[in-house]
Amino acid sequence: MTFLSSYDLWAALPESLLALTALLLLIADGARRGQAGGVTLPGISVAGLLASAVAAMSLWGQGGTVFGGLVFDDGFASFFSILFAVIGILTILFSPHYLRVRGMRLGEYYALLLLAIFGMTVMVKAASLLVLFLGLETMSVALYVLAGLQRSDAKSAEAGMKYLVLGAFSSGFLLYGIALLYTVVGSIGYEDIALYLAAGNRLSPLLVAGIGLLLVGFAFKCAAVPFHFWSPDVYDGAPATITAFMSTGPKAAAFVALIRVFGVTLASASSLWITAITWLAILTMTVGNVVALRQTSVKRMLAYSSIAHAGYLLVGIVAGTKVAFVGMGYYLAAYALMNLGAFAVIILLNRRSDSGYALDDLKGMGFAHPVLGIAMAVFMLSLTGVPPTAGFFGKLYVFSAAIQQGHIALAIVGLLNSAVAAYYYLRVIVFLYMARPEGDPMVSQPPIYRAALIVCSLLILLVGIFPEQLLSVLTLAVP
Amino acid sequence: MLLSLCIAFPALTAILVLLLPRAQETLVRWVALTGSLVTFVATLAVLALFRTGEAGFQLVENVPWIPSLGVQWHLGVDGISLFLVLLTSLLTVLCIVGSWSSIRERIKEYHFFFLILETGLIGVFLALDLFVFYVMWEVVLVPMFFLIGVWGGPRRVYATVKFFLFTMAGSVLMLIGILYVYFHTTDPATGRYTFDLIVATQQSQFPMAIQTWLFLAFALAFAIKVPLFPFHTWLPDAHTEAPTAGSVILAGVLLKMGTYGFLRFCLPMFPDATMAFVPLISVLAIIGILYGALMAMVQKDVKRLVAYSSVAHLGFVMLGTFALNLEGLSGSLLQQINHGISTGALFFLVGVIYDRRHTRLTSDYGGIAKVMPVYATLFMIVALSSVGLPGLNGFVGEFLILLGTFAANASYAVFGTAGIILAAVYLLWMYQRVFFGEITHEENRKLKDVTLREGLTIGVLVALAIWIGVYPDPFLARMQPSLDLVLSRFHETGLSQVVIP
Q: From the CB of residue A348, how many other CB atoms can be counted at a distance below 10 Å?
């Protein structure tokens, strides 16, 4: 059996580059152990991510599968490989400053980040539940360590521990679900499962249980209510750069897997799970928003807001059409930009306490630091979903798909939720621009950092005003 | 190109303003003023090119924006939007002039937001694509949020957040309505869904139950904006806390987004539902007229009084719109312009004394007609125009509205007339307390009369008020064909459906 062709290896180039860079980072870190943090490690990481993005772009997925049907080679995967590289680069641009301020001179930070991105890329390419699981675990293990990286900080240690325990727990659900599906179908390839369901086989209780367990596992990973309890604490406790990363990249990877597994593979059995996901969506956005209203720490507020956004994204799964998946792809890209940007701003403005990120710290910052202020205002308006930002367009696209499919009540709940959410996002702007500054407003802003923020906010506006380009790429790419 | 220019020029000026050095405050003001003047001239060109007597859209532009979604940059002007656009561009110029001395901090940002606001407002009135309309509708929200929140009075944060959340809550439901209409509208040229308003209006044949829901989805957004009783609670706060120019543009133009929305979307697209909702909306409008007037009567703060008078006036506008006859509709549309002129001028006038004394309580004044004769004269004319004295603009609008309402339902007209009497009571009573009698506060003896700049700003509006009052025909002649077209939808459905539910 000829399992591997040379094309297969080429198709795996983006991931291979990521893995190689991670290894290189470990070696480089070992070689310069004990020295002060410089630009070497971030430099290598950015170079590796860029190379991987370029590879993904030039090897843009041809459609179909490689590695004997285990791995997708489609545009959807390529799109997200590139998005993950961009998320990684932005995270790394925001990192050295943060690590220096926190006195964290840890080389493995970058290596773990690259490994997590490697895992995410595998997840979005997986065409088999087992490959998906491998990608997921690679990503998760790296994230467990990253979340608890700041060992001296009790909250960070707690975050790492909590994430590990609950993450392992949810992986168990997922694995058990996979096993049950295998028992019934006799295969764990997406295509085989889809064919089995489409053939009109009787839905055995084992299969139903398997899908249910799979759903619970995914709900944990996407932090959907009521399986979200780990995420506020983990997001709050983890180093801010890692929170920014976790709330965008791994979340996007989980949603892409959800699209591939539930939106496509299990689509013909949708009667089994559509009600469950509808309720997950309603609960997730409502609970996320309502709890976010009460937060006084911006970091924790963004953690809950991230839960709410997962709820909006679940609406896309309910709609279940190609249009909905295009919308989710757009939304995930837009969300990555705005959420990373928002975290980047609060990292800079965090000057009082170690992990406070209190809303009060933002008082009057808008006029004192115009670039930061404008960027943050754009991020908040985009998170609210005010046109002409990308956040609005993503929401519009996902909800319009739901309306098209007749889920009008769900769309109403979702959009009313975004009106509720407007309150806490606006509060950030109110503190930025409508409150008198308190104390020393000095925050250091490295030029590259500032440039990254400007790029993020401009991109949000640009993609929001001219979405056609991104939409047409996604329309061709979506499975 | 001309209409796109009217929308784009303020935004381009806004970006230019943002790039100017912070210290050059006078330069910022002049650039902003020039930008708004050029926009005003452009809208005058629209007026000059407008062909009177035509009902349909003119100067139409149609360029694909997001082709895969059926979104087009589709603009056009008709008799309904023409004067609202002119009002916007005129008031923006006056607001920038009016802010010359009253806004002293963060001048760059202030003018940036004002110009973006103008872009959004003109965009709302010119958009012929539901998507473009919605985007512009929301674009208006953000600069207004900042204008109230940063440059407003002591309770500005509360007021502005309330304003934003009320409007946002309404507009998300409208978005659902827009999307529902979108999925029932096919572009005959491409065979795909389209947001095109003209196509949507032609194709809208929804059954009654769906029409009712859609009407409600749109109407809620508009009713909050108007504001129709009981959705008005954001308005007194926002008006009172906003800086003078903010109140002027808020009352003068932003509220008209709601009434315009009813005329442009609800009436033509959902005629059956509109007829079914006539009693409810008329009664709410009458409650608004009476409640607004009674609340205005007991206000101690002049600005708050003017704010409540807006609730009453907009009640009239709604009453006229839902009379569903030509008199009512043209009166209502003319009254929208009149309200922009009169209430805009009233807010400017209140701003004049506020700048001098930093109080707006009637009890802090009294007898100032002696020290500020020109000011008192201007205030008198504007107050009378707001009351509806024949010979001034308010009379024409209110008269037509009552005429139309009387033809539709005489009892509504009776209540409406009571509102006019109350308006005379609260405005003239306030006038008496502020301007006549003895000077009770020593500070008021040294008050300076209006400056040339203030006089010019208000004078322009007073001149317009007299013009419309004496010779409204040029306005009505341009409005009526388009309004007739809206009404023709009702005759059609009236004929095709023998029984109106």
A: 24
In A, minimum Cα distance to B18 occurs at A370
Hey, is the C-beta of A473 within 8 angstroms of any chain B C-beta? no
Cβ atoms within 10 Å of B104's Cβ, excluding its own: 10
Q: Distance (Å, rounded) from C-alpha B264 to C-alpha B285? A: 19
Contacts of B235 (CB under 8 A, 6+ apart): B227, B255, B307, B310, B311
Q: Give per-residue pLDDT as tens, B64-74.
A: 998 888 899 99
Residues sharing a CB contact under 8 Å with residue A191, sequence separation 6 or more, in sequence order: A65, A69, A127, A265
Average pLDDT over residues A137-158: 88
**Residue among A415, A423, A471 minimizing CB distance to B175:** A415
Contacts of B108 in chain A (CB under 8 A): none
What are the tens digits of pLDDT across the range B187-243?
Answer: 888 888 999 998 888 888 888 999 999 999 999 999 999 999 889 999 999 998 999
Please determine, for residue B425, whether its predicted confidence score (pLDDT) is greater than 80.
yes
What pLDDT was estimated at residue B366?
A: 84
Q: What is the mean predicted confidence (pLDDT) over B488-498?
A: 56
* Residue of B150, B294, B314 whose CA lies nearest to B232: B314
CA distance B294 to B415: 13
Parse chain B into domains and list their residue ranges: 280-501
| 8 A C-beta contact, residue B457 and residue B348 | yes
pLDDT at A37: 61
CB of A26 less than 8 A from some CB of B = no
Nearest-Å Rg of the Cα atoms of chain A is 21
The answer to whether B44 contacts chain A (CB < 8 Å) is: no
Counting every residue, how long is chain A? 479
Q: What is the dihedral of CA B20, B26, B30, B36, to 10 degrees?
A: 80
Q: Give contacts of A 364-403 with B, CB under 8 A.
A: 367, 381, 384, 386-388, 392, 396, 399-400, 403
CA pair distance A293, A290, nearest whole angstrom: 5
DSSP string, A174-211: HHHHHHHHHHHHS--BHHHHHHHHHTT----HHHHHHH
C-alpha angle B483-B489-B495 in degrees, rounded to nearest 5: 135
Question: CA–CA separation, A74 vs A256, rounded Å?
Answer: 13
- Radius of gyration of chain B from its Cα atoms, rounded to whole angstroms: 22
Q: How far is Cα A251 from Cα A242, in angstroms, rounded to an integer?
A: 12
pLDDT digits (tens, 9 = 90+) for B128-181: 999 999 999 999 999 999 999 999 888 889 999 999 999 988 898 899 999 999
Q: Examine residue A437 and say whether the peptide bond preceding it is cis (omega within 30 degrees of 0).
A: no
Kindly state whether A293 is in contact with chain B, defined as any CB-CB distance less than 8 angstroms: no
Q: How many CB atoms lie within 10 A of CB A35?
A: 11
Of B67, B146, B150, the CB nearest to A468: B67
> Is A215 a residue whose pLDDT tops 90?
yes
Q: Compare CB distances from A419 to B156, B161, B172 and report the shortest one's residue.
A: B172
pLDDT band at residue A443 under the 50/70/90 scheme: low
Give chain B positions within 8 Å (CB) of A408: 176, 180
Q: Cα torsion at A18, A21, A26, A30 (round to 10°)?
A: -170
ipTM: 0.90
Nearest to B141 by CA among B293, B280, B283, B257: B257
- Report the residue of chain B nearest A473, measured CA to CA: B68
Give, as one character, the DSSP assignment of residue A269: G
| Polymer length in residues for chain B | 501
Mean pLDDT of chain A: 88
DSSP A385: T
Classify residue A267 by its DSSP letter.
Answer: G
Helix (H) / strand (E) element for B128: namely: none
B493 pLDDT higher than 70? no
User: Mean per-residue pLDDT for A148-164?
Assistant: 86
Give the C-alpha separation, A213 to A229, whole Å: 18
